[in-house]
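Lecture 7 notes: from sequence to structure.
We start with the chain below.
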Amino acid sequence: MRTLPLFLLPCLLSAQVPLGALSNQFQELVDRTSPAVVQILVRSYAAGNDEAPGVLRTARGNGSGTIVSTDGHIITNAHVVANARRIQVLLPVTGEEAQTRRSILKASGKLVDATLTGLDRETDIAVLKIAGEALPAVPFGDSESVRQGHIVFAFGSPLGLDNSVTMGIVSSVARQVRPDDPMIYIQTDAAINPGNSGGPLVDSHGRLVGVNTFILSPSGGSDGIGFAVPSNIVKTVYDQIREHGRVRRGQIGVLAQTITPTLAAALELGRDAGVLLEDVTPGSPAAAAGLKVGDIVLTLEGKPIENARQFGVNIYQNAGKTIHLSVLRGGQTRPVAVAVLERPRDPDRLLTHVSPDRSRIRKLGILAVDLDDKVTSLFQNLRDYTGAVVAGVTADLALEANHLQPGDIIHRVNQKVVLNVEALREAVEPMAHGQPVALHIERGGQLMYLLLEID
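Predicted structure tokens for the same chain:
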């Protein structure tokens, strides 16, 4: 049975078709989608309170997710699983087992462990993997086809109440939180609450058109202003994480601003739409290509550029390639070819590599990870490619000014070379409480000695 197309809804209502038929259509959609919607339970590391902001503590959290492949790939929000020590997924009861249960109160499903395939903080999307085959999955929809007024359904576990669904309409198809922000969201009035994060927003055909991410609410509860990451952005992030383990983003070294009529009048630009280059970083690919402050970007690969967000998205999608621009300068149009470099990764992601059993170095009050190939990619211009990287601080020593910080790379303990976390532990464990130690570390590309006392 197919879901009721939206364009038939007014016709059915005007023809006085029984509401039961419409209700049955909604029920069929929910029955198809719910088996692929999961609750995510997380144990993680979180920042301390205001008195100890550098100290990590253990925290528990929950959110929602969507199975999008029959072999067990799950999409959720990055903030749901960030810094996770352990991730578990509560699967709903489905199939024959669900049909044999007659009580209106549904039994809890199966709790399984999940692994983090990768996450992207900028889009707030993460990909998990659970073991399984022939699992129910929600198909991707095309968020570009979503229109204001379309009916949508939000699934998830609001406030920890698993397997919930609400219905609403699309309030806006492209909402920015800040002007020229590269991220846009689908705004909906479907009720979304804490715990819905990571759950699917589906259209009237049961296709995933967004991932519920946050709400705007002075009360902290649903006020009918919810936001979801559009499915086309989600699909791009999902594909890149599955292929590369991360999202590759390009940069050319410019800062761009959308031209408005007011800006055009003030600067006498002669056009009130497009993109103006506000800054060109010296030594960047843009500078090498001859781009200058004040240039107006007209096209990128032959496509008209209308705003700064569109320009930025097209740049970061072409990491490792050469792009061709058409720019307006001094009343003349000129072509420019620019190499797009891959943007360096975010060192804040170090905590995703932490192993609770192996990473803790008790006598230094830190969590550390090996400077291996995965971690090396988070840094630029390393001075040494062996060592242990500080991923977080777990002791009150973090409150001291002269102490290790996340991102520090420990290369030596006194005169002993540190090859990895195990070598660091072997070097400090025999030391007595209060014993001074000189750590040779790398911080922000600079080498220095840090003098500490063993805890």
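Points to note: The chain is about 20% helix and 35% strand. The radius of gyration is 26 Å.
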